[in-house]
Amino acid sequence: MSANPSPRQILTNLLPHLRVAAGYANHIQERINILPDKDAGNNFFATALTDADLSIQTLVEVALLGTYPQIRFHGEEYEQSRNTKYFRGTNFDESGEYLITLDPIDGTRYYLDGHNNYQIILGILSPDDFEAVIAISPAQNCYYYALRGEGAYKGSLDKDLDACTPLQITNPKPAILLGWAMGQCKTALIDKYHVFDLENDYSPEIKVPNFNGLFTEEMTGVIIRRGKFIDGGALAFLAKEAGCIVTTFDGSALPTLSQCQDYSLPGLVVATSETVHQDLLRACQKIDEESIMRNEE
What we know:
This protein is α+β, with helices and mostly antiparallel strands. The protein is built from 8 helices and 14 strands. The strands form 3 sheets. Strands 1-2-3-4-5-6-7 form a 7-stranded mixed sheet, with helices on both faces. The protein has a 5-stranded mixed sheet with strand order 9-8-10-14-12, with helices on both faces. Strand 3 and strand 4 form a beta hairpin. Helix 1 packs antiparallel against helix 3 (about 50-65). The longest helix is centred in the first third of the chain and has 22 residues, at about 5-30.
């Protein structure tokens, strides 16, 4: 195996393992056992933890260590993993080596409640930006991927990267997703958009879109409190490569990844057009940072 594999080579070699992970997640969803919740405050999306989270992370860790033994890796469940100590590192270093990130089940609450829009998200990061992201939707038998500067693509799970087609967001519904603790933005948007306020509108019985609703054209914009490298930040990169506008709350460009703290970009605004982007920026002027922090405690 090449000592310096390209992001495409890494995705290509990991895709068969990710297909196995997807099949596993899909098969056990109805019988899943819930492990003790994570200590993540009031956010019930962040607290959910299942056998699938831990098992999929272990599967990917084994695949990485067997294929790229010198790789750097940060998985969501790194604190509970038996493999963290075997990786070269869990963060960036001065050499600029790639950092692989993984959210083994993005949308664990959706997963537990039987919804089909959970994902497995893997990213390949450089200190300045994402190099590649792949987001697999096991229950929908599809995946999306993007390589830096090469656009975003979609395909069914049985297709290899080269057989996928460009991801084009051409006719999104006039709907906006507000991530956890972003409900303050709703009043500035409800006159023009259907607003999904995740904190208050989530339902175990009726599926509410999550970030990947952008890729299925269920909505036209997203505001999230922070862009964690393993999930929101990775999906924002995918959206940007698909042609979306991605900025911070004040419209600024995103910082380099190595400048960020706690494996997370700041709050993000993602929009499919300039008009939507301006509407979302105006809504962000309503954000009260102190109340958000209280909500997350």
